[in-house]
């Protein structure tokens, strides 16, 4: 919160951070399927994690592949693996 020098009140009121819902996380990841191939690459995962506010996007992308890439093709299928990815990301507690 910014303080006004010499004032007894803040310049702005901080809003409490609210956790992302399952649907919001799902929407974020789907929006980063930039080439519309129905799957998320590591680069697309990194961009999505950046949107969520992650600091180590490369690490998060790799870990999400480890948690949710059931067939080992190094992509997250929006049809078959997105639910598992969303479950993993919800546990990380991202807020907005």
TrEMBL record:
Q: What is this protein called?
A: EF-hand domain-containing protein
Q: Which SUPFAM superfamilies did the record assign?
A: EF-hand
Which intervals hold domain EF-hand?
Answer: 20-55
Sorted alphabetically, the keyword list is: Calcium
Molecular function terms, GO-annotated: calcium ion binding
Coiled coil feature spans: none
Which lineage ranks, top first, belong to the organism behind this chain?
Eukaryota, Viridiplantae, Streptophyta, Embryophyta, Tracheophyta
- SMART domains listed in its UniProt record: EFh
A single Pfam family it belongs to is: EF-hand_7
């Amino acid at each position: 919160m910014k303080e006004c020098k010499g004032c007894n009140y803040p310049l702005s009121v901080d809003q409490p951070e609210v956790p992302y819902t399952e649907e919001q996380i799902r929407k974020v990841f789907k929006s980063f399927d930039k080439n519309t191939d129905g799957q998320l690459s590591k680069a697309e995962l990194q961009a999505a994690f950046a949107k969520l506010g992650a600091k180590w996007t490369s690490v998060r992308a790799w870990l999400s592949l480890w948690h949710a890439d059931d067939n080992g093709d190094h992509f997250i299928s929006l049809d078959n693996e997105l639910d598992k990815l969303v479950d993993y990301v919800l546990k990380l507690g991202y807020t907005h």
